[in-house]
Amino acid sequence: MTSFSYFLSVMIRKTQAAVYLGFCVFIVGWVFQTVIFVAKLPYSPAFYYSSSNRWGRVFFWVFNLFPWDPLTKGISDFNEATLSPSDPGLRWSQQYTYCSYQPDPSKQAPHNPTVEFRSYDCVYPMHQIYWNLVVQWVVYWALAAYLNNVVPNEVGTRSPVWFVFSPSYWRPRPADQVAAMHRVVQQEAAGKHLPPAADECPLEEDVAAEEDRMRATLLARTSAGNTEHLSSLPVFGGVAGAPRYAAELYGLRRVFRAPLVTCTPAGLNTCIRGQQARGPLRDFWAIRGTWLGIEEGQLFCLLGPNGAGKTTTINCL
Questions:
Q1: Is the pLDDT of residue 243 over 90?
Q2: How far apart are CA 157 and CA 150, in angstroms?
Q3: Chain mean position to CA 77
Q4: Which of 134, 153, 208, 271 is the S-S candidate for 203 at Cβ 3.0 to 4.6 Å?
């Protein structure tokens, strides 16, 4: 259940949605368990081996995709093996042998019901349940870990679908950081991913000074063979006594694209093109370009009014 919950959590982005999803899972699980306990579906041999019901086995395996269903089947078997004080229960050594389907009593192997529990009206024994739950735990965990990387998160970032085959994912190298810095330099030089000029706001003196310092740091980090500025710059490591950066932000930006379709206050059924609804809609730049460095051991705070981009910056980090 833990890996299945992790798998479901990848699909949601808001806390309120998690509440609704958890309630739906509870209702669905309760209904499925009631069906198993009351009607013994889909674990009834008459249903599983039915020649007239071609969907019996499909229904059986669909049920088994939800971990609470095989778990309920196992609990039901334990319950059947201990209905009365004289029942022997179910031993670990019987997980393969206690469950079989043999409707002909003459072909049923004799046994002492006070010593050994057997069910000849049974499909899906306990050892299959154990293996099913183990495989589900591994598969759901792997799917959750994969989707958590390839599905865009709350700030729209994601990894490529083939990220598991990238050596840099399993073993990041300093060269990968340098390559990322070179991409920032190229984007700045080409003017890519920049906010419109009309949206630019004048920078305060200390903010402008921090941006100039980080631009110089970026230039020093990406200048091949140029170590002229390195002696005065904090580095990731390697220089004794020099401060170290815990985080370096080079032109961090986050834009929320304008929707293609919007709705007027008159009602949700009067949706029109966004460009026609009370004037053109524009992209919203939550972060227009943040340049700063946070040294290790430093207490760092983000200050600003509502809507300045503090929470978005932390989410990006």
A1: no
A2: 9
A3: 34
A4: 208
Please give the radius of gyration of the chain, using alpha carbons only, rounded to the nearest integer.
Answer: 31
As given in the structure block, the two tokens for residue 295 are 């040294």
Please check whether residue 69 is in contact with residue 63, taking contact to mean a CB–CB distance below 8 angstroms.
yes
The number of residues making up the chain comes to 317
Most confident stretch, 61-70, 149-158, 175-184, 189-198 = 61-70
Torsion angle (degrees, nearest 10) of CA 205, 206, 211, 214: 150
Is the Cβ–Cβ distance between 304 and 310 less than 8 Å? Answer: yes
Name the pTM for this structure. 0.64
What's residue 285's pLDDT? 84
Peptide bond just before 42 cis, omega within 30 deg: yes
The pLDDT-based confidence of 188 (bands split at 50, 70, 90) is confident
pLDDT tens for each residue of 230-239 = 444 444 444 4
